[in-house]
Amino acid sequence: MKVYTIASGDSRLSANQNCWPAQEEMESQLAEAVSALGHELVRAHPFKEEEGHGFIAGQREGLDVFKDIPVDAPIIVAVAVWQYSYHVYPGLLTHQGPVLTLANWSGQWPGLVGLLNLNGSLTKAGRAYATLWGEDFSDASFRRQLGTWLESGELNHPAEHARPFPLETISAKAKATAESLAQSIAKEKVILGVFDEGCMGMYNAIVPDEQLHPLGFFKERLSQSALLAEMNTVSDGEAREVFDWILATGFTFDFGSDHATELTEAQVLLQCKMYIAACRIGDSFGCDAIGIQYQQGLKDMSPASDLVEGMLNNGERPPVKNAAGEVIKAGLPFTHFNEVDECAGIDGVLTERVHRALGQPGENTLHDIRWGDADQSGTTAEYVWVFEISGAAPPAHHVGGYAGSRGERQPAMYFPSGGSSLKGVAKPGEIVWSRIYVEPDGLSMDIGRATVVELPEEETQRRWNSTTSQWPIMHAVLHGVTRDQLMAKHQSNHIQVAYANSAVEADLCMETKASLAAKLGMRVNLCGTGFPDSGIRAEVAREQWGPNH
What we know:
Elements: E1 2-6, H1 13-36, E2 40-43, H2 59-67, E3 75-79, H3 89-94, E4 99-104, H4 111-125, E5 130-134, H5 140-152, E6 162-164, H6 172-188, E7 190-195, H7 209-212, E8 217-222, H8 224-231, H9 236-248, E9 252-253, H10 265-284, E10 289-292, H11 306-312, H12 342-357, E11 364-374, E12 383-388, E13 406-407, E14 429-439, E15 442-452, H13 457-465, E16 473-478, H14 483-489, E17 494-500, H15 503-519, E18 523-527, H16 538-545
Parallel strand pairs: 1-2, 1-3, 3-4, 4-5, 7-8, 7-10, 9-13, 15-18
Antiparallel strand pairs: 6-18, 11-12, 11-17, 12-16, 14-15, 14-17, 15-16
Helix pairs in contact: 6-15, 8-10, 9-10, 10-11, 12-15
């Protein structure tokens, strides 16, 4: 049997060129595995000599590729890098053969991130697919699963870790807090300021208005060109005040002099102007949260938005006044949803309000589910995930806050105009994780608990070296969710995280947010054990799901 493979890539030529060797190596291993199982892997599109890569780099290119694939042929979407899902999902929607999304287990490039984004996009579209990942394509277990799909066109992964959230067991305080917040949203409504939709082809990150409005959430559709225009009204003196404020916290910038490859003060001062402009525009439109797309277009006009996003997500941040002379959201985060992920925008608003109502830290952020590995230092026997995002994590999440964080130049292959990240190591503690995602018939939320662990500096650096060292990192241990369970069930490249002051309080935050989401009309799944032994719900968990939970 002929099995066709396609490779969706970036829209940025530099990224496609830099990442191609890893994709080529993975496809070679895949071809060997398919051949060993008695089938032939056929690449559906050629290597582009003039461009130096073999990726599909645009939506039209992807549609043209599908014209030459037999309509009922099995297709493997091979993912070793970050990819723009809209390059291929339009063709996948009308293709009649079985589809497998497949990734190698590597943190070198955001391939696992790209896989999960494509999966979430196909789920939103209602397109059936199977998915598979593996560290070693010659491994017997991997080949057994691949063989199952090749023979049947289907591959099912166990998902017993996810179940409808037991709302009937939550505490009276959680119920009362959720009810109060739901009534507030119903009365006052919520506005998400969207600086251009569809960042990096993330179809799964766009919430249809018809699903958004019943929650009491609405979009203020803004333009990145308006953000640039507002930046031009910010004076050099105002930008310098923000810059000086950052330096006064003890934050360190890794400055150089070469704009093309190093971080410069001029880049950071433009980021300071973006921060002020974003605050003012968001405030003028009455936004409760904002999301800056950055990437295409803005990446060629301005330094990266990530330092801006991290400061916005922090309660302690440089003060910005509006036209009336009032400090905008004084002492509070101005919640930012990175890469205009509207699902994360909804989650960010709910999280900030739940945690603030319960006296817990309101700072929250999304991270990429970048990669995971066993801890090689021997500190913990638990599987440790690398959650990593390009800079939007708030300093409050980092060891040492601002003083423990630093700014490094964003990688030139993604960010030609440079700009500082907001790099740090997430502090140890108890967190709630969640993800809101779009299904054809409505919004759902997966939610669970995790612990951020402290690892030795050498192990942290190994993980940075295996991924992107300029970006903030979180060492996360999920409660009751294995690596493969998360990969099989999670419907996004992103995961939302927020700290609580203790395990007991994290449990309370989790059940309150779950209750609030349900009251707003979402389906809510508890993923994993949810309630650790130290939590207030441990006895309920053991009674309901058995002693192993």
